[in-house]
TrEMBL record:
It comes from the Eukaryota. One of its GO terms (biological process) is sensory perception of taste. The gene is LOC111601843. It is found in: Cell membrane. The keyword Transmembrane helix applies. It is a multi-pass membrane protein. The chain crosses the membrane at residues 47-68, 83-105, 147-170, 280-303, 309-334, 392-414. The keyword Transferase does not apply. Keywords: Cell membrane, Membrane, Receptor, Transducer, Transmembrane, Transmembrane helix. Its main location: membrane. This is Gustatory receptor. Belongs to the insect chemoreceptor superfamily. Gustatory receptor (GR) family. GO terms for cellular component: plasma membrane.
Length: 418
């Protein structure tokens, strides 16, 4: 029997339904976490038109407005403050480029994301739900990852709103620049949310893939235990041997089903990576520039303001920098765990060949096909170049710290020149 449902299992559909509504508000009608029934054609057409209008507003209209007022946006008598404004402008420019890539990818992959990702995930979910047995640890790990991501994203949204209020509190220019900078901060906040929706969807798909691999591994270990209980040599009686051969035949069919399920899970993983790789690369760059900007902003506030004035902006910038780094780390950590789980699956398949009860040729052939499938299903990479794992996060940290040192040197030069 299944265990009592957890909080996540009881409210899972509500999370996805509200998440889908939130994605629609930001023009991401492409996101559908739990496709249950097709959307009505008029409503779908209206939402698609709204998403295009909103995207073009963010990509064409507002950038033109801020570009026209660029001098006023960066105007200040303090050259050190101007450097901070330039860094913030570059930060938003990277977000803007990521939004363009996201919009183009969503437009070209609209049907593919729904068919190859959402529906494929839903089919796998139904397949595993039909066989509710074994330990619930993989599902609990999935819930923990989703709780962390959900809490982290909402904390970062609150922190960004506090950051906008901090900008309004410390920017006291009387020539209208303050109002324009607040508008620019709000625009940057909307750009971040636009791309973060797709990043969350990719994270959700990867977390689901990890859960399915772990559930598959649990079922595979159960079949290995059943095989080890079969001892064809201890019972030479023809009737008993025939019953054992029948069990091995059923086991062979079960291994075939698990092999097909592994292929479906890996296909979901590859499709999700392929459709989001350019956006992920943009998000990696955004993370790099965000860490750089936040570190330098903290340094500048500590160097130029009194403790009473700078305390709130420094805390806000520090929490945001930490949250952004942890967010990217979680995404890469899931990919790392997927790689580890695939290695464990390969080791379990190897243990089948070491079982003394392994005799039927059909079972040997099935296991050989499973081994070949594991061997040829490689880990997907970003744009065919970079693995999304913890080494990439370390590289981002080192690069951000190097750029931070460069900006500090610029700041010291400006301080001596003024």
């Amino acid at each position: 029997m299944c265990e009592a449902q957890s909080f996540w299992e009881r409210h899972e559909l509500k999370f996805y339904r509200y998440g889908h509504i939130y994605a629609n508000i930001y023009g991401q009608v492409i996101i559908d976490y739990v496709p249950q029934r097709p959307m009505r054609a008029p409503l779908k057409s209206l939402l698609i038109a709204y998403s295009h209008v909103l995207s073009l507003l963010l990509i064409v209209v507002l950038p033109g407005y801020f570009g026209y007022n660029y001098r006023e946006l960066t105007a200040t008598d303090d050259r050190r403050m101007q450097l901070v404004l330039y860094v913030g402008f570059a930060n938003t420019l990277i977000k803007y480029a990521t939004v363009i890539v996201t919009y183009m990818a969503n437009t070209f992959h609209f049907e593919a994301i729904n068919q190859h990702c959402s529906l494929q995930r839903a089919h796998l979910q139904a397949a595993f739900a039909a066989s509710c047995r074994g330990p619930s640890r993989p599902k609990r790990s999935f819930e923990l990852f989703m709780y962390l991501k959900f809490g982290l994203i909402n904390i970062m949204m609150v922190v960004q709103v506090c950051g906008i209020l901090a900008v309004a509190g410390i920017d006291t220019d009387s020539n209208g620049s303050s109002r324009l900078r607040i508008q620019f901060a709000i625009y940057s906040f909307v750009l971040w949310n636009y791309t973060e929706n797709m990043a969350d969807y990719f994270y959700y798909m990867n977390s689901s893939v990890l859960m399915y691999f772990r559930l598959l591994h649990v079922q595979l270990r159960a079949e290995l235990g059943q095989l080890r209980r079969l001892d064809l040599y201890a019972h030479p009686h023809p009737l008993r041997r025939g019953m054992l051969m029948l069990c091995c035949s059923r086991l062979c069919d079960r291994i075939g089903v698990l092999r097909e399920r592994f292929a479906a899970i890996h296909a979901l993983y590859v499709d999700s990576f392929r459709m989001h790789q350019l956006q992920l690369l943009g998000l990696m760059l955004t993370t790099l520039i965000n860490n750089l900007t936040n570190l330098f902003t903290i340094f500048n506030l500590l160097a130029t303001s009194s403790r009473a004035i700078a305390s709130f902006p420094v805390v806000v910038s520090g929490v945001y920098a930490l949250g952004f780094y942890l967010d990217t780390y979680l995404v890469s950590l899931v990919s790392e765990y997927i790689k580890v789980e695939r290695t464990r699956l390969a080791l379990t398949i190897r243990q089948f060949s070491e079982s003394p009860a392994l005799q039927p040729p059909s079972l040997n052939q099935e296991l050989e096909q499973f081994s070949l499938l594991l061997m040829h299903s490689r880990q997907p990479m970003l744009c065919g170049l970079v693995h999304l794992d913890r080494r990439l996060i370390y590289l981002i940290s080192v690069t951000a710290f190097s750029y931070f040192i460069t900006l500090v040197q610029f700041d010291i030069y400006l301080r001596r020149a003024s």
